[in-house]
């Protein structure tokens, strides 16, 4: 795709953002058409959905520090059974990993000569740096 996934930003429609804000796996009632919103014409999206035989769409959001993101799951089988707790845990781990990477980058910019000597400790409530 040519882009770093961590830097991608998407403007989800309000209903999808609301579903993501719960932090739980949530089915998007309008499917791919609602997920895409106004980014593409609905007729084109419906044709693509039919051609690819896509059924249900699920989202789970995450937030950590000053950023938020989400995971979208698009299924080809209707009413697919998902392991929600595993997916939600993955979303939380993803948020922690991104936050940790950004904290390391801030440390490297703030103290370029000593950035490699920084050690990191992840706690349940926050991420803190110890030197």
Break the fold down into its secondary structure elements and pairings:
Blueprint: H1 14-20, E1 26-27, H2 31-36, H3 42-52, E2 57-64, E3 67-74, H4 84-110, E4 119-122, E5 127-130
Antiparallel strand pairs: 1-2, 2-3, 4-5
Features:
131 residues, alpha+beta, three-stranded antiparallel β-sheet, two-stranded antiparallel sheet, 39% helix, disordered N terminus
Q: What does this protein structure show overall?
A:
- There is one protein chain.
- The protein has 131 residues and is of the alpha+beta class.
- It has one domain (5-130): 2-Layer Sandwich (Beta-Lactamase).
- It has helices at residues 14-20, 31-36, 42-52, 84-110; strands spanning 26-27, 57-64, 67-74, 119-122, 127-130.
- A three-stranded antiparallel β-sheet has the order 1-2-3, with helices on both faces. The protein has a two-stranded antiparallel sheet with strand order 4-5.
- A hairpin with a 2-residue loop joins β2 and β3.
- The longest helix has 27 residues, at 84-110.
- It is elongated and about 55 Å long.
- Mean pLDDT is 77; it is low at 1-8 and 124-131.
Radius of gyration from CA coordinates: 18 Å
**Which series of helices and strands comes N to C?**
HEHHEEHEE
Beta-strand content estimate: 15-25%
CATH first level: Alpha Beta
